[in-house]
Design brief:
The structure is a homodimer.
Chain A (H helix, E strand, L loop, with lengths): L1 E2 L20 H14 L6 H13 L5 H8 L7 H13 L3 E4 L4 E4 L10 E6 L5 E5 L1 H14 L2 E12 L1 H5 L4
Parallel strand pairs in A: 1-5, 4-6
Antiparallel strand pairs in A: 2-3, 4-5
Helix pairs in contact in A: 2-4, 3-4
The complex binds zinc ion (4 copies).
The first copy, chain A, binds a DNA duplex through helix 4.
DNA sequence: GACATGGCGTTATAATGTTACATTCGTTGT
DNA sequence: ACAACGAATGTAACATTATAACGCCATGTC
């Protein structure tokens, strides 16, 4: 991820050329820790969904996940939704409202943090960036209208650095 | 609507206590003007959908619109979606991704403008505010990651000024 | 072991959105 | 007036996304 004023390639996947599969071990550890802290099990289904999303590195629809996880036994969408609910609570997975898709996240988001999801229209990849400027702007408009914000949704549709160069077909 | 640094009650519906039905005439004029400019008709169905949304003043689901518009003849969802497509192009209607709902808008949005939708969890009312600060923040994170943004989605879930006072059930 | 809790597997259903196609309507050209 | 064309409509079917209901089973507690 990338923080606002910081232009360096700190957490940035600098040379990731094909879709940056995120750190599966790290994200799994966080899910496990969350489960432990809440005294709820990090079950097989939850692990499978998270592992798939982490390996993919791109947003996937719930039914797509169900299909990929199906082998002899068919995995039903409802099972995926249940796993996703846990994983979102654990902060390991986000939902893209612009695509009704889910993707794994290996960042640790602070509670007050406002995160921007940048979704590439061409390749579907998602980049995250926390922005204090955006957060301040949101607080500003909320204050102006007396609105008490609880949860922000910020997504950008556009073209990622890779695809912007090659107009693509 | 409300602009960023401007704290005054310029365009703000100051004493609107019940859900501020927006200016139906104004929004209809804009739709008609858009239709004329594109040489496409502002048909009856489009007028009916817009009129209903303007009168409601609150976001409505597509199927809800279809039901309200149905009389002797049943209005099908697909007809509503087609009308909504036109109305969104005309800039008279927005879609709330957080609710899959649509609402009329009587503002005139500049092309580069970043608009924040503030959705009250309790009463469902929506306020709009254009924010230059948010726009700048979004440009910032995009630039940092080399992302070329095309269309921003910014929504805030929370409690409006009216409902924040009365905790409500 | 009895019991409660919670996840799983299954089925069904709700809610949202789209495709396909024939028909109707308004416009345009002759 | 008439044919022709494109756009908007009406209708049906379908696709996608998400949730509800319910019984089963594993786990932990008493
Ligand atoms: Zn994240
Ligand atoms: Zn891309
Ligand atoms: Zn608006
Ligand atoms: Zn409210």
């Amino acid at each position: 991820m990338v923080r606002d004023p910081d232009q360096s390639a700190s957490g940035l996947h600098a040379e990731a050329h094909h879709h940056h599969a995120i750190d599966a071990d790290a994200v799994q550890s966080r899910a496990r820790a969350y489960a432990t802290s809440k005294s709820i099990p990090f079950t097989s289904m939850r692990q499978r969904v998270l592992a798939l999303l982490a390996a993919s590195g791109k947003p996937m629809a719930a039914y797509e996940i169900a299909e990929k996880l199906s082998d002899a036994r068919r995995v039903q969408a409802v099972q995926v939704y249940r796993a996703l609910e846990f994983l979102q609570e654990a902060g390991c997975v986000h939902r893209l409202v612009s695509r009704s898709a889910y993707f794994a996240c290996d960042h640790l988001h602070g509670s007050g943090e406002t995160v921007v999801f940048m979704v590439c229209s061409q390749c579907g990849a998602v980049q995250e960036a926390a922005s204090d400027v955006v957060a301040r702007g949101l607080r500003g408009v909320a204050k102006t209208t007396g609105f008490k914000p609880r949860h922000p949704i910020v997504e950008l549709e556009g073209d990622c650095a890779n695809c912007a160069g090659e107009p693509a077909g």
